[in-house]
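Annotators were shown the component list below and the corresponding predicted structure, then asked to write short factual statements about the assembly.
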Amino acid sequence: MLEAIILEKTKNSPEIILDKENNTFKIAGRSIVEDPGEFYSPIYKWLEEYVKNPLKSTDFIIDLEYFNSSSARQIMEIIMLLEKISDTGQKAKISWLYEEGDEMSKERGDEIKLVSKLDFEIKEYPAEDF
Amino acid sequence: MTTKTIYDFYKLLENDNISFSYRGGFTNNVLTTATQLFKENIGEEHSKLKNKLSFLMIESFQNISRYSEQEGTDILEDTSEFFMTRNVGDTFYIISANLIDNDKIPTVKEKLERVNTLDKSELNKLYREVLTNKQISEKGGAGLGFIEMVRKTKGKLPFDFVKVDEKQSMFFMQIELKNPKVDDGLEPLPLSDAKFVQEIVADENILMMHKGDFSKEAVGPMLRMVEENMQNVSLKVHKKIFHFLVEILQNISKHAYPINNKREGIFQIGFDDNKFHIGTGNFIAKDEVANLKNQIEMVNSKTKEELNELYRKYLREGKSTKTGSAGLGLIDLARETTDKINFEFIEINNNYSFFSLTVNF
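Structure shown to annotators:
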C-alpha cells in the first residue's frame, strides 16, 4: 500500500491529502509557493505510483482560493497524471470546489476543465460566516 | 501613475535601504505589516534597533489617530492621512501627516516645542509629572507620546503645519532614530523631503509604496498587507489584485538584477478613475532586455481570446523554451488587465537597465 502524504497548509502552500487507504485525495488552500517544482515533486512521485494501481473510483478534490501561475502548471500536471487512470480501466474525476461569490476561482476552474480530459465537476459551497 | 513616475520615484528614494509609505484608512493591520516588514528586512547592523523602531512606529500611528480629525473613509483625498518609514544610512525616519483643526495647533505646537528643548533629566521629570497628573491625562494626548518619542530617540521631533483651509491644516511630524553604533556622516533628511514625498503620492493617488530589497521576506508582508487592507473592495477585484501582486512581486524577487547582493525594486498601488493601478520598477540585466521586451510586445499584440488560447495551450504543454515565448504569468497578466501592459526600459549602464511596468485593473 502506498503510504499517505498529508501536508498541512501554510500561508504559501496548500493542504495536501493523498490517502489511498481512506480514499481521500485533496488539495486545498492557497498555492503561491515560489518554487512550485520543489513543493510538488513528491506529489508527482506519489501519483505516478498511484495511477498504476488506482482505486476503482478516484475523486480528486481541488479547493484552491489562490494559485500563482507557476502553480497552475503544477496543478495541470497533477490532472494529466490522473488522466492516466483511464488506461487501467478505473475511473477518476476532479471535483473543483470554490466558495460562493468567488468568481475568480470559478473561472479558473472553468478554464482548467476546458483543457482537462477528465470527468470534471465544478461545485460552489456556501461562504463561511464569521 | 506612469512608467516614468515609477522611475522618478525610484530616483527620489535611491538612497533608501528600505522605505514604505501608506495613505488612507489607518487600521492596525497596516501597522502590523509595516512593523513586520521592517523587522524582517532591516540590515544586520541595525538589528538592535528593531524593538525601538517598532515601538516608535506604534507611537507615530497612535499619534495620527489621536490628533486626526478624519473619520475612517474609503475615499482618498489630497489630505488623507499619510505614514512613511524609511532607512537612509544610519538613520530611520518615521513620518506622519494628518489633518488637524487649526484651533488645536497652538496646543500641539507648544507641547512639541517643549519636548524639543528639554534635556534628558527634564524629560524624565516631565514624563513622571504628566503620568501622575490625572487632570492632564484625562484630556487625552497630554504629550506623553511626544515625550516618549524624544526619550527613545534622544533627538528632536521636526514638525510643521501646512494650512489647508480656514478650519484645518496638515500636521507633519518626523521621528528620527539614529543607530549610535554606525555613523554615516550624513546630515539628517529634512522634514521638507518627507513633505515632498507626501505631495507626490497624493498627486499620483498612490495608496501604498514600498522600495527595498524584494527578497522573499519582503514579498510575504506586502501580500498580507494588501490582503488585509483591501477587504472593502469587491472580492473579485481584491482577488485579482492579490493574484497579480503575487506574480509581479515574485517576478522581481526572482529576476531582478542583483546589485550588492540585493534585488532592489519599487512597488506602488494607486487608485483613481475607478481603477487600481499597480506599478513596479527594478533593475534587469541588459542581455535580458530584448527578450522581455519581445514577450511583453507579443502579449500586448494579442486579443483576449488569443491570449486565452495561448494560456490553455501552455497549461497542458508547458512553456516552450524558444526565445520570445511568454510565460503563463505574463499571459495571465495581459488577459486580465483592462488596458495594455505599459512598460519602459531605461538604460543605466553597460550591465543593467531599469525596467518599469504599470497595469490597470
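Statements collected:
1. The domain at 5-125 of chain A is CATH 3.30.750 (Transcription Regulator spoIIAA).
2. The first helix of chain A runs from residue 36 to 50.
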